[in-house]
Amino acid sequence: MEDGICTVIAARNASQTIARAIHSALRDPYVEEVIIIDDASEDDTTQVAYQCDDGTKRLKVIRFDVNKGPAAARNHALDSSRAPVISILDADDFFIDGRFSKLMPVEGWDIIADNIAFIEERDGDNFDIGAVAAFDGLIWQLDLATFARRNISKRGVRRGELGFLKPLIRREFLDKHKLRYNERMRLGEDYDLYARALAAGACFYLTNNCGYAAVIRPDSLSGQHSTEDLAQLAAASEALLHLNLPRDIALALREHASHARAKYLHRNFLDMKTRNGLPAAVFDALADPLGFARTTRAIFLDKLDKLSRNSSTSSREGEVRYLFENGRINSN
């Protein structure tokens, strides 16, 4: 197929969910390859993946003996595939039937992404696709400043960062600009790749049609971030500041980098407190007065968040929320 798609699934200990993800990809006629990278799972993820083979020879399963992280897994899949278009699918999630028939006919893009439906784990296997809202198919172009600002999480607001997007990406653009995932990162590697692509001039379209279902799981690997993960995210965000970009874009990137650095400093302070006690943590943090101010503010707001979460109720069964509702994304 001239516009065939390779769906890449990086998986670790995903035996309970990966079959649903694989089947959702294999059902789509645009998909000519599905490449699974088992990132040194300690369960039977590889065996479950092999059992999903539908006989069309589109499924390829590769297992790492050593855990390398999602960025390395995706890069390996990219280099092992041949399709001209790449799509990323998390092992917890699944495509909604007909997704690519709405995205592929759009012309002129290097990257294109659609809306995401967030659903609770309890609803995943029995999810009613009819519950997904039918938006109007509005298409608009995403710019780097908006993208950066919409990846700054806000207190008291349910997560909606655009780094969650799972777009289609043209291989030709990635290869032309020598773009791959940053393998030092295990958090925010999607944000980093998309930001560098936009900085390289990618035409990145969004549509409010919804073709991707993200399953919210309390034990998801994406929710388990180490201090080193946060440090690498901060470093990658700060590296973007060295690019020669217009002032408004540079300002947005600086805001994101400051946000990422504050999250790292907060976690590092808590680690120091656990290891050496509060006085030692405060003494260490005071070496950077601005960083210390950010840390104390983050701790205070974190306490407020916990109080808010404790007083809130969980979402109702079958409730669906979306990365963005019907309408354009703004930078606020």
Automatic annotation (TrEMBL):
Record-linked CDD domains: Glyco_tranf_GTA_type
Keyword Nucleus: no
Root EC class: transferase
One matching Pfam family: Glycos_transf_2
Residue stretches making up the Glycosyltransferase 2-like domain: 8-105
Known EC number: 2.4.-.-
SUPFAM superfamilies (UniProt xref): Nucleotide-diphospho-sugar transferases
A GO MF label: glycosyltransferase activity
Keywords of this entry: Glycosyltransferase, Transferase
Cross-referenced PANTHER family: GLYCOSYLTRANSFERASE (PTHR43685), GLYCOSYLTRANSFERASE 2-LIKE DOMAIN-CONTAINING PROTEIN (PTHR43685:SF2)
Protein name: Succinoglycan biosynthesis protein ExoU
